[in-house]
Specification:
The complex is a heterodimer of chains A (284) and B (288).
Chain A: H1 2-31, H2 38-53, H3 59-80, H4 91-112, E1 127-129, E2 132-134, H5 136-158, H6 160-170, H7 172-177, H8 182-207, H9 219-228, H10 234-250, H11 260-274
Antiparallel strand pairs in A: 1-2
Helix pairs in contact in A: 1-5, 1-8, 1-9, 1-10, 2-3, 2-4, 2-8, 3-8, 5-6, 5-8, 6-8, 9-10, 9-11
Chain B: H1 2-28, H2 36-52, H3 57-77, H4 84-104, H5 106-109, E1 115-116, H6 129-153, H7 155-165, H8 167-172, H9 177-203, E2 205-206, H10 213-225, H11 231-249, H12 260-282
Antiparallel strand pairs in B: 1-2
Helix pairs in contact in B: 1-6, 1-9, 1-10, 1-11, 2-3, 2-4, 2-9, 3-9, 6-7, 7-9, 10-11, 10-12
Classes of the chains: A mainly alpha (284), B mainly alpha (288).
Chain lengths: 284, 288
């Protein structure tokens, strides 16, 4: 019985993590820096959804709108700040993302305070399928994430623009020579990253609750997932999310729950030591 | 007012140790460390627990410094080739890991309650406790300053600078760059631990929530304002950051239209914006 509960909760966590981890992975793959503000875009997306729910929008519509707005904010910040340090190496964008992290996290704190808030959803009776207990919300999260990830994967694989993104990731100079406009690619990647992170934050908040540390608390698991997945690979991020999700849930048999994050850090360090290229070699 | 000035100076001194340490790692050697607060915390807790157990002040400070250095070397050794993007992630993750351990291990460090009643060194005769502590901090900082200046000028400092500029060249003259980088990390972490010991002693109470990532960011901002330069520049810019940080606490008495949580959030937002602005100025196109 316990085993089945942990399995479902591991899969739900994996689904939630895989979107923001894919966002980190995409930025890393194309722009080559770790963006520490991605978890804050999760928080921002969740709070914007709450704000829009206040205008009596249904949750799904509020969430969609909030995710688009978050994507636009990510794009705007990239164009007004990150854009100017593109050629200055890895450090300036990392520092900018740290500054952005502080700004976003405290913007939310300023607006809504430190307390825990909830989305206006009514508790629903869970399904029981072959002994597995899963709530409708959890089922919806897993379904939604699979659809979005498939969309991103197919988009990258089969569209002209997806090819441009992959080309820029593999060899920027060559991509430019063949007519790809890198700034467009960067802009699209940032919008997509903000959007994915926001959806991740919204689904995380529906499973737990909203508070200003919503995203920050999963920063380490997200980076563990993104690195294990081989930076730059969306499929890798999804696989790694399942693996890290299973590890951290089943660690509950031997470790207290407060150490889930610490365990993710150990996974991260171990991956860097043993296989820094990740499980799936990135497409580059 | 004079009490307030003394407090600001003491904080400036405490952050000074941490910034001097970061300047060895980042300014001198070019290693990114986004988790300097981890070593600060190790120093603070080691000092607090030892001195509460009756260990004399100097010995407790010494052990706290050394242990932080050991942690620094360990982090360096567990980061493959000390590549800068890995280092950024590992150091940030490590600092959060340390905070989680401190938060969860009640037997070790009191968990969320922290450690209270950390002693200060005996006061000098004729001086108040605050002034006396300022003098002790200043003396220790002068020593740390002298020490880092020596490092900058001695062969090890030149090697570290050479690593920052071009690692290949250093390797080609037969020096093991990785060993030097590890040493730089050890020294930088030890200095942060020294600052942590003074922090615990000054406040007499420490808890895990004092060791969040914003401390690392204060120090990063200070070293960045000092243009990752000499120890003198680093100390001056640290004093500036400390004055701004502590100075804005004064605003609490004058700004009445926002509550405590909102004011704290505003201060951190300003800090974030300041960091963004500094980076934009420092790395704008056309400048190295």
């Amino acid at each position: 019985m316990e085993f089945k509960i942990y399995l479902i909760s591991a899969l739900v966590m994996a689904a939630i993590w895989s979107l923001p981890a894919a966002a980190i992975s995409l930025i890393y793959g194309v722009l080559r820096y770790p963006n520490f503000a991605i978890p804050e875009f999760m928080t921002l997306g969740a709070y914007l959804t709450l704000l829009l729910c206040g205008f009596s929008l249904p949750l799904w519509a509020a969430g969609l709108l909030a995710a688009v707005v978050t994507g636009l904010i990510a794009l705007a910040v990239d164009q007004t700040a990150f854009r100017f340090v593109r050629k200055a190496g890895i450090l300036p964008p990392v520092l900018l993302s740290l500054g952005l992290m502080l700004v976003l996290q405290n913007l939310v704190r300023f607006g809504w305070g430190n307390g825990n808030l909830q989305f206006p959803i009514l508790p629903m009776r869970p399904f029981i399928i072959a002994g597995f207990i899963i709530t409708p919300v959890q089922a919806a999260i897993i379904g939604l994430v699979i659809v979005i990830l498939a969309g991103v994967f197919l988009g990258l694989r089969y569209t002209e623009f997806g090819r441009a993104v992959r080309a820029t990731s593999t060899n920027p100079e060559l991509a430019i020579v063949t007519g790809v406009q890198p700034e467009r690619v960067y802009g699209a990647v940032l919008f997509a990253a903000g959007f994915l992170a926001a959806v991740g934050g919204i689904v995380l908040a529906t499973e737990t609750s909203l508070n200003p540390l919503l995203g920050w608390r999963v920063l380490i698991p997200l980076f563990a997932v993104a690195i294990l997945g081989g930076l730059g690979s969306v499929v890798g991020a999804a696989l790694a999310a399942v693996l890290v999700g299973l590890t951290s849930e089943f660690s509950l048999f031997i470790l207290p729950s407060s150490y889930k994050t610490a365990l993710a850090f150990l996974v991260l360090t171990l991956v860097l030591l043993v296989r820094p290229s990740g499980l799936v070699k990135s497409r580059s | 007012m004079i009490d307030y000035l003394i407090a600001i100076l003491i904080f400036a001194g405490i952050y000074g140790f941490v910034a001097l340490g970061l300047n060895i790692q980042w300014g001198l050697t070019g290693l990114i460390n986004l988790g300097q607060v981890a070593f600060f915390a190790v120093g603070a807790y080691t000092f607090a627990l030892l001195s509460k157990a009756g260990v004399p002040f100097l010995l407790a400070v010494g052990v706290a410094t050394a242990l932080s250095g050991v942690f620094g070397a360990a982090v360096a050794m567990f980061t493959p080739r000390l590549r800068e993007d890995y280092l950024a992630i590992v150091t940030l993750g490590f600092s959060e890991f340390v905070r989680l351990v401190l938060l969860n291990e009640k037997w070790l460090a009191g968990g969320p309650d922290g450690v209270a009643g950390v002693p200060r060194p005996a006061s000098f005769p004729g001086l108040g406790s605050e002034t006396s502590f300022l003098v002790v901090t200043a003396l220790a900082l002068a020593f740390a300053f002298w020490f880092t200046r020596r490092i900058e000028r001695y062969p090890i400092g030149r090697t570290l600078k050479a690593i920052r500029e071009d690692e290949g060249v250093v390797t080609s003259v037969g020096k093991v760059a990785l060993a030097y980088k590890t040493k730089a990390f050890l020294l930088g972490a030890a200095l942060a631990g020294l600052g942590g010991a003074f922090f615990a002693s000054y406040l007499s109470y420490i808890s895990p929530d004092m060791f969040g990532p914003n401390v690392s960011i204060y120090v990063l901002a200070a070293v960045l304002i000092g243009a990752q330069g000499s120890s003198v520049a680093t100390l001056l810019s640290t004093a500036l950051v400390a004055a701004l940080l502590e100075g804005t606490r004064l605003l609490k008495d004058y700004i009445t239209f926002v509550d405590g949580v909102e004011l704290a959030a505003l201060r951190l937002m300003v800090l974030g914006l300041a960091l963004i602005a500094i980076v934009m100025v420092r790395y704008r196109p056309g400048r190295a």
